[in-house]
Amino acid sequence: MTENYTALYEEHKKLGASFTDFGGWQMPLKYSSELAEHHAVRKAAGIFDLSHMGEVWVTGPDAAAFLDYALVGKISAMSVGKAKYSLICNEDGGIIDDLIVYRRPAAADAAEGSRDRFLVVPNAGNAKVVAGALAERAAAGQEGGFDVVVDDVSAATSLIAVQGPKAEEILLRLVPAAQHELVTGLKYYAAVEVPFLVGGEGRPLLLARTGYTGEDGFEIFVDNDDAAALWQAIVAIADEGELTPAGLASRDSLRLEAGMPLYGNELSLEGDPFAAGLGPVVALSKEGDFVGKAALAAKKEAGAGSTSGRKLVGLKGLGRRAGRGHYPVLKDGNVVGEVTSGQPSPSLGYPVAMAYVDVEYTEPGTVLDIDLRGKAEPFEVVALPFYKRQK
């Protein structure tokens, strides 16, 4: 597999990061202790390099209508400045990727008039596939295609996340006082252009109040050329012990505690949104067709994730040993499911796992076993998420 390096790779090397391949990218797994990095995000703040994620702009007069067709959600209903979690599925209803869509202010064009603008952010390993699928659907969606431009800017864009209860306090130190309200007033799943004071000047960068940790936090989109300067400025402005560089290992344990699905674990082409508990994301009632609509409607009608098949659940360990991905889930010695993600929870002090389980065994309080290499370990079905931050 081709190795890609983010614009922050040298920063990670200076910090002594251990690297791992993720979606074809060399990414920091951890800097020192993944456990310490996890607790830092829960108690103060962590800074993450997410530059392996994709960024695809969709612009044009038909942009909203096009995304209604290309994705399962009703993107046209979004207000400017808001963000929305959605899925891109194939014709069979299989999940190609989960992603976030940001609606930005329309761009005025003297020749074409107003052009709607949306930023689509897919996962690292799926970025090229999603960009290709969007371009293909733009051309083939209806007679003559949609009047949109699909521009994959992933290779030129970096993404830095600051997550944790002190995230806002830290970032405010890099924003002019007159613009503090842009940050403090930013709602969850919304984004705004903010002038960050980097290198003595205010650079307008897209700041989103989104994240993948279960904590309050932000994600900042920045050109590759400016990424290192921004990273250094954020680290420098934080007080000692207030901000910790964090890698993929802690990001995974944080997202698992928060019950957030990971593509390739909880989500895949073989699965469907209803079994994954993402039925509300699918807008079957929106006007017109969208890719996968007929298949998804049939799956819902057949009771996928409710009365038939398997459903994604949370499992709380009643012992000390943790389940891992692909371990069988048992009821009375019979296989009734499979673990998708699992490990000891640093925040809660007991093992947690997500698993697809036959629907008849998904009621909270149901006791099941995970086959830990030949030994059955008891787990209890619980509602997701495992962890909720105190607001």
Provide a compact summary of the structure.
With 391 residues, this protein is of the alpha+beta class. Helix content is 21%, strand content 34%. The protein is globular.
Share of helix among residues?
A: 10-25%
Kindly report the CATH topology of the largest domain: Gyrase A, domain 2
Category from helices, strands and their pairing: alpha+beta
Instruction: Quote the beta fraction.
Output: 25-35%
Q: Measured on Cα atoms, how large is the radius of gyration?
A: 21 Å
Total DSSP helices: 9
Estimate the mean pLDDT confidence.
Answer: 95
Total domain count? 3
Sheet having the most strands? 6 strands, mixed
Gross geometry? globular
CATH superfamily of the largest domain: Probable tRNA modification gtpase trme, domain 1
Number of separate strands: 20
Low-confidence stretches: none
Overall CATH architecture of the largest domain: 2-Layer Sandwich
Please give the order of strands in the largest beta sheet: 11-12-13-10-4-14
Please give the alpha-carbon distance between the first and last residues. 42 Å
Topology pattern, helix = H, strand = E: EHEEHEEHEEEHEEHHEEEHEHHEEEEEE
Which CATH C-level class of the largest domain is it?
A: Alpha Beta
